[in-house]
Amino acid sequence: MAPTLAKTGSTGSLLNSCTTRACCTTLVWGEYGIRLKDTDRRISAAHLKIADETIKKRLRGMKYRLYHRVAANIGVYTSGNDQRMGKGKGSFDYWAARVPVSRILFELKGEVHEQVVRDAFRLAGNKLPGQYEFVKKGDPPVMGITKLGNGVTEEELRRPRKKLPEPNIMSTAARIPATTPV
């Protein structure tokens, strides 16, 4: 099989296949997780750090392992409000992460009761922008805001909503005027 070129976005960056599939909406390493519920967000590194500290503070003294599924890898640059247009990009302000809808942010595995983990993730979700939901191992994956399972499949969600009529050559030929005189 010949190698193929990867698809790139408008800026030349590789397109993330996880934003179009249901793979990043399920738990991989942990037993419990927190998932973004409402819309795509840009979450700053400070927000992620505060949420991480909140979870660690609530679970202090227990045996667990916390996995971070999102990294703040986008630099945000700003220029002042009193500046006129032009004259450069501005100075670096903070790091942020773009988080698509239904993405898992944190996973947790360990000897911790489910209600305690649920409470820790609730407190962390209150510190973060947006709405979040608690996820357990074995919950169905999500595409957009639709949960897969119960008869709903990924192929069914990807199909066109409206069936396109197939072109009829005879009706098309009758509509187009002939180029040669008859």
From TrEMBL:
Keywords: Ribonucleoprotein, Ribosomal protein. InterPro entries: Ribosomal_uL16, Ribosomal_uL16_bact-type, Ribosomal_uL16_CS, Ribosomal_uL16_dom, Ribosomal_uL16_sf. The keyword tRNA processing does not apply. One of its GO terms (cellular component) is mitochondrial large ribosomal subunit. One of its GO terms (molecular function) is rRNA binding. GO terms for biological process: mitochondrial translation. PROSITE patterns: RIBOSOMAL_L16_2. It comes from the Eukaryota. CDD domains: Ribosomal_L16_L10e (cd01433). SUPFAM superfamilies: Ribosomal protein L16p/L10e. PANTHER family: 50S/60S RIBOSOMAL PROTEIN L16 (PTHR12220), LARGE RIBOSOMAL SUBUNIT PROTEIN UL16M (PTHR12220:SF13). Belongs to the universal ribosomal protein uL16 family. NCBIfam families: rplP_bact (TIGR01164). This is Uncharacterized protein. The lineage of its organism: Eukaryota, Fungi, Dikarya, Ascomycota, Pezizomycotina.
